[in-house]
């Protein structure tokens, strides 16, 4: 006779061993990704750029009936020109931001001093009892440090643009002809291309509207903040909030900015971010990624720890690709369901008892 209890213990041991192996493999993979980040960041970025260029090439071949021999060079030239234009815009904006970094820091410090001055009596006395200079330097150093890390990350990425273009060239030239993709890779390509197209359009509209609003209101560094709104919009949830708050010191402290302009410069971009992020973007993207917000937030933290700002920009599509592959295998499917926020499959699998062997 087979002992059902021994079978349950054996199955539990196998599951514990599997979980331990997954944890060890995850830690080892994270260490390898961190160590190989000088190569992996350009490659992963080039992979997503190549997927976007493949979509453009396929549309030219299928809809415009452009021959492949012509569609491929047109796509490559258009992609290179777009990347070069974006790189030039980013470089000019970073130069302007670096030139005004001291003014930005000074205005932020003035804003903190003015905020402390209008606090109620007990809170103001408590703030004055502390080292006021050290107290104001804490948020100043945090903000300027964040801007510095963002600037250096984008500058490093631009310095690796040649490597990115080489990867893109080989990935596009080695891609298949325009045809329907099937299987796991087809699902990956379809979802990632849908996400990229929607996100690029939404981010471009957001950055343009924010930059135009600040430019009309004559806010210093208007186009820089518009470009940052475009880039940070690729970071779900967190990026839009950071982009809205970045102009705060310039808007509230600069004497050339009137009170009405300061209010509008904060309210209008916040309204743009809210409408685009909560109304337009969900309608355009739908449920293309099938990821729960908590999964997206955890992926931002994880990839941000590994690859910094660039990792946060790439976190969502990387996590979506990982979920698709996890969903293809029976053993890892509960993890994919958990990433999508569907607890039913995981709960039912944990609660279901193992099937008893038939009596001998």
- Give Rg in angstroms: 25 Å
Amino-to-carboxy terminus distance:
6 Å
Poorly predicted runs? 350-360
Looking at how many chains there are and whether they match, the oligomeric state comes to single chain
Number of domains: 3
Helix fraction by DSSP (H/I, runs of at least 4): over 70%
- Encode the helix/strand succession as letters: HHHHHHHHHHHHHHH
Structure write-up:
This protein has three domains: 32-174, no CATH class; 182-286, no CATH class; 289-352, no CATH class. The chain has 360 residues and is mainly alpha-helical. It has helices at 4-35, 37-62, 68-99, 101-117, 121-129, 132-159, 161-173, 183-216, 222-232, 238-245, 248-253, 259-285, 293-326, 333-339, 343-351.
Question: Which properties best describe this structure?
Answer:
mainly alpha; 360 residues; disordered C terminus; 3 domains; 81% helix
Short description:
The chain is 81% helix and 0% strand. It is mainly alpha-helical. The protein folds into 3 domains: 32-174, no CATH class; 182-286, no CATH class; 289-352, no CATH class.
């Amino acid at each position: 006779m087979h002992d059902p209890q021994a079978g349950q213990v054996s199955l539990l041991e196998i599951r514990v061993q599997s979980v331990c192996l997954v944890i060890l493999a995850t830690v080892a993979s994270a260490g390898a990704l961190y160590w190989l980040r000088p190569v992996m960041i350009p490659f992963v970025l080039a992979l997503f750029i190549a997927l976007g260029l493949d979509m453009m090439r396929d549309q030219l071949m299928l809809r415009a009936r452009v021959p492949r021999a012509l569609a491929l060079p047109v796509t490559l030239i258009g992609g290179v020109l777009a990347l070069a234009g974006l790189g030039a815009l980013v470089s000019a904006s970073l130069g302007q931001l670096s030139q005004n970094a001291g003014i930005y820091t000074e205005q932020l410090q003035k804003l903190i001093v003015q905020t402390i001055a209008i606090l109620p009596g007990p809170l103001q006395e408590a703030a004055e009892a502390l080292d006021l200079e050290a107290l104001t330097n804490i948020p100043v150093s945090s903000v300027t440090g964040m801007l510095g890390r963002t600037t250096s990350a984008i500058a490093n990425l631009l310095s690796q643009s040649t490597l990115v273009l080489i990867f893109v060239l080989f990935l596009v030239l080695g891609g298949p002809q325009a045809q329907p993709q099937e299987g796991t890779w087809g699902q990956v390509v379809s979802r990632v291309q849908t996400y990229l197209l929607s996100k690029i359009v939404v981010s471009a509209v957001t950055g343009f509207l924010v930059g135009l609003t600040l430019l009309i209101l004559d806010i210093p560094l208007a186009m820089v903040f518009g470009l940052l709104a475009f880039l940070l919009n690729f970071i779900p949830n967190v990026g839009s909030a950071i982009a809205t708050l970045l102009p705060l010191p310039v808007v509230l402290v600069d004497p050339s900015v009137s009170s009405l302009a300061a209010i509008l410069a904060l309210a209008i971009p916040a309204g743009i971010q809210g409408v685009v992020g909560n109304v337009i973007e969900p309608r355009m993207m739908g449920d293309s990624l099938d990821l729960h917000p908590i999964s997206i937030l955890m992926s931002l933290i994880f990839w941000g720890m590994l690859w910094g700002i660039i990792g946060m920009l790439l976190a969502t599509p990387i996590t979506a690709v990982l979920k698709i592959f996890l969903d293809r295998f029976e053993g890892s499917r509960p993890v994919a369901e958990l990433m999508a926020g569907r607890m039913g499959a995981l709960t039912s699998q944990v609660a279901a008892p193992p099937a008893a062997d038939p009596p001998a």
